[in-house]
Amino acid sequence: MRPCPLRAHAFSSHTYKAMERIHAILPDGSIIRDVEVFRHLYEAVGLGWVYAITRYAPVLDAANALYGVWAKYRTQITGAQAYLQA
C-alpha cells in the first residue's frame, strides 16, 4: 500500500467530526445527513427509486440506524483507518 499524503495528525478534530457521517449542503444552504444524502444523490442521477422508500419516516429511521452502524465501523471494515494512520 502506498503512503497516504494526508496523515491522521493532519486532520483537525472538526475534520474527524465531519467524517463521522455523510452530510451534504443543498443549494438553499440547508444541511442534510445520513441516508437522506444518498436519496438526494440517487435522485440527481435518475435512480431516485432506489432510496424512495426512505421517504417514509419509519423506514428512514431504520435506514439511518443501520447507516449509523456502518458509519461507525466503515474505516475499520474497509481498512481506511490503517491507511490514514500509516
Distance from N terminus to C terminus (CA atoms, Å) equals: 10 Å
N-to-C SSE string, H for helix and E for strand:
HEEHHH
- Structural class comes to mainly alpha
User: Spatial order of the strands in the main sheet?
Assistant: 1-2
The rough form would be described as globular
Mean pLDDT score: 81
Number of domains: 1
Largest sheet: 2 strands, antiparallel
**Total of DSSP H or I helical runs spanning 4+ residues:** 4
Number of strands: 2
Oligomer: single chain
Low-confidence stretches: none
List key phrases describing it.
86 residues; mainly alpha; two-stranded antiparallel ribbon; 7% strand
Structure commentary:
The chain is mainly alpha-helical and about 90 residues long. It has one domain (about 10-85). Helices cover about 55% and strands about 5% of the residues. The protein is built from 4 helices and 2 strands; from the N terminus they run H-E-E-H-H-H. Strands 1-2 form a two-stranded antiparallel sheet. A hairpin with a 5-residue loop joins strand 1 (about 25) and strand 2 (about 30-35). About 5% of the residues are buried.
